[in-house]
Amino acid sequence: MIRKWKNDEFFSQIFKLLLPIVLQNLLSAAVSSADVVMLNYVGQSSISAVSLASQYASVLFMVYYGLGTGATILCAQYFGKKDMRAIEIVEGIALRFSMLISVAFAAFALLAPELMMKLFTNDPELVTIGSSYLRLVSVSYLCWGITEVYLAVLRSVGRVVISTALNTLAFTLNILLNAVFIFGLFGAPKMGAPGVALATSISRVIELACCFAVSALSKDVKLRLSMLFYRNKVLFTDFLKLSLPALGNDVAWGVAFSMYSVIIGHLGSDAVAANSFVVVARNFGTVLAFGLASAGGILLGNIMGENRLEDARKGARKLLRLTVVSGAIGGLIILAATPLILKYAALTETAMHYLKYMLLINTYYVMGAAVNTTLIAGVFRAGGDTRFGFICDVIDMWVYAVPLGFLTAFVLRLPVMWVYFLLCTDEFVKWPWVIGRYRSGKWLHNITRDNIE
User: Fold this and answer.
1) Would you give the DSSP letter of residue 409?
2) What is the pTM of this model?
């Protein structure tokens, strides 16, 4: 089997893209785990407050991911067509939207952090800690909006090593600065939870500076803020047509997932603290699967841009096989990590009980997430089919999962673990429709245009 994969051109190309992306995702998960591990020595309230405040970053990431998706879809196909001018114009369009959203989020985090925290919890201590975190992290939002778009464009044209190197620098710096500011090392102030925010902001500023440095040395993919003002009606229309459903999809999913935190947040600090550790474990468990979705989307986009639609269909079939394997591996990773997490988590007895069973639920939950992410965010989007994912996730999350969570938690008042278990059925409910869409082949499209100026 391994020899067959090595001799297959699609598998060979996917692994070249996959390894840097997985490394990048691993480092991102490492930052989240470092936050939780270090704050574990500060106190349960700090873990819970930062976990809730970070939900805004999760939503913002979904926004950037949606915008980056529109850019990646177009840029990957135009790269297959060797049209670098179109890629530069698309990058400017994506930056225009990402910067507007970044400014709005940063302003709210700086000026109204208490209001933002009260949406998640009514615990005064968590509101106070979380508000100080949001004020300091607001600077990172401004930088993040630019870097995410630029790195998405780099990945779409195959520059995954450069993209990974920049993220590696930012994530490594973030972890080191976390330790410095949380514990007050090397003469720095001992800040606790707000230290996490300061470390994030400093690392994001440095990452942005490095993006401009890479752009100055690059011969093709530049980071030009002047392209914010460049007008191209055709590409702007195409970008909106692809990005708005993808953005709506990711935001709808991200906000709904944040609603899970609202539900859990009102079930008590024990549930919140346990979920904080579970999120870290799940992030590691899905690293490989989500990397496959990103790498597969880029490669399939390149193939469709060359108008090789039948090759793209065969490639998608191979990608799905890899995804099933990656989902199984992810579940085993969480299962293997469970005893270690339970040994070192400094939580109350009730929180430890929740943590144990939440981790066990996630050993199979990652398979559902793996298959859906690869198909919706990888395969379908590569061919410009973003509308289906939007409709599917809006119905699944907002008609099924979120109402079910509120009903079971606040009306039926079921035990915490029953509420959590039912929330974790969301990925499997949509499998019949997602797999049916994949088999139909309606996602196969070459969306490039000729004579872009």
Assistant:
1) I
2) 0.76
Class of residue 375 by CB neighbours under 10 A (exposed 0-12, middle 13-18, buried 19+): buried
DSSP 401: I
Give the 3-state secondary structure of residue 190. coil
As given in the structure block, the two tokens for residue 386 are 């973003």
CA distance 253 to 263: 15
CA dihedral (213, 150, 112, 34) positive or negative: negative
Instruction: Spell out the per-residue pLDDT of the chain, length 453, in tens.
Output: 455 555 577 888 888 888 888 887 777 666 656 666 666 667 777 777 777 777 787 778 778 877 887 788 888 888 888 888 888 888 888 899 889 988 998 998 888 888 888 877 777 888 888 888 888 888 888 888 888 888 888 888 878 888 888 888 888 888 888 888 888 888 888 887 788 888 888 988 999 999 999 888 887 788 888 787 888 888 888 888 888 888 888 778 878 877 887 888 788 888 888 888 898 889 889 988 888 988 888 899 889 988 899 999 999 999 999 999 999 999 999 999 999 999 888 788 898 999 999 999 999 999 999 999 999 989 999 888 989 999 999 999 999 999 999 999 999 999 999 999 999 999 999 999 999 999 999 999 888 877 666
Q: What is the DSSP letter of 218?
A: -
The tokens describing 437, both together, are: 């869409």
